[in-house]
Write a structure and sequence with these properties.
Pfam family, one: EamA
Number of domains: 1
InterPro entries: Diverse_Substrate_Transporter, EamA_dom, EmrE-like
Keywords: Cell membrane, Membrane, Transmembrane, Transmembrane helix
Number of strands: 0
Protein name: Membrane protein, putative permease (EamA domain), type 5
Membrane topology: Multi-pass membrane protein
Helix content: over 70%
Order of helices and strands: HHHHHHHHHHHHH
Number of helices: 13
Distance between the termini: 18 Å
Structural class: mainly alpha
Strand content: under 5%
Largest sheet: none
Shape: globular
């Protein structure tokens, strides 16, 4: 195996680890919600992530610019909305179901780009959206109208899609590490305000579920995953990355089934698979439109 192929193989394995870690976060967060509020969990998760990111950034950042602060606050607001709706969704739907629906953010991206920047929406995007809609119908047990958990998950996916679109624009005008730190700090501040207003306090119940959820999500799913994704994508292709990241909802579903005792009906399993097909169609179509290579 050549040195280049060896690096690509190791990069792919690292990205598989990222996708699995992201999928694994859904169940511990859902379990921690039994004894802690949504905004309290988000506050402590991103407080820890912020301090870790600051420590890492000290080795790389030479100056703090106004653009990074301003754009980081905007992106942080999108992320806060995404994580807040996602965490609330975990109160009302299976963690694996929330994970599959959250993956729809890649389907929303081309339509958001069209809405804000008038870029053409290609046929694969419509096909992916159509498949995903059918999948949502099956995932909601074949009923018209989504349950509260599913609806909150869709809003979460939309918020994440907005963050993805505007990150692509803002990152070219900012210092990357400051931008990321500011996003974490914004989520932390908004979560603290909402925890005090809606939950009465930001002090958590320091139980095993709390520690497990915060450490896994802050250390592994936020800081670790961010660095690995950005570092490893230099050695592999966008198409492989998009395919690997479909393992996120799959790993969430496997963990929810074997560890969390969550059960899908045959119809819901079919819906989850159709949603995955819609996500893959959107991602692969986007890749070929940009004339990349596998």
């Amino acid at each position: 195996m050549s040195a280049r192929k060896s690096k690509e193989f190791l990069a792919d394995l690292a990205l598989v680890a990222v996708a699995v870690v992201w999928g694994v976060t859904f169940l511990p967060m859902a379990q921690a919600l039994h004894t802690n509020g949504v905004f309290t969990l988000l506050f402590w998760r991103f407080l820890l992530a912020f301090f870790l990111m600051v420590l890492i950034s000290l080795a790389f950042v030479r100056k703090i610019d106004a653009n990074s602060i301003k754009y980081g606050a905007i992106l942080g607001a999108f992320l806060f909305a995404g994580f807040a709706f996602q965490t609330f969704a975990l109160k009302y739907a299976l963690s694996s179901s929330v994970a599959f629906i959250t993956g729809l953010n890649v389907v929303f991206v081309p339509f958001i780009v069209f809405l804000f920047f008038k870029q053409k929406v290609y046929i694969y995007s419509f096909a992916g959206a159509f498949l995903s809609t059918i999948g949502l119908y099956f995932l909601s047990s074949g009923e018209f109208g989504l349950g509260l958990g599913e609806l909150l998950s869709v809003i979460c996916a939309l918020a994440f899609a907005l963050q993805i679109v505007f990150t692509g624009i803002f990152v070219k005008r900012c210092e990357l590490y400051v931008l990321v730190c500011m996003q974490f700090l914004t989520i932390c501040a908004l979560s603290l305000i909402c925890a005090v207003v809606f939950e009465g306090t930001a002090m958590p119940n320091f139980d095993a579920e709390f520690y497990k959820a915060v450490i896994i999500t802050a250390v592994f799913a936020t800081v670790f995953a961010f660095f690995v994704q950005n570092a490893m994508q230099r050695y592999t292709t966008p198409m492989k990355t998009s395919l690997i990241f479909t393992l996120e909802p799959v790993s969430a579903g496997v963990l929810g089934y074997f560890v969390g005792g969550e059960r899908f009906s045959a119809l819901q399993i079919g819906g989850a698979l159709v949603i995955l097909a819609g996500i893959l169609l959107s991602e692969i179509g986007s890749y070929y439109k940009n004339k990349g290579s596998f």
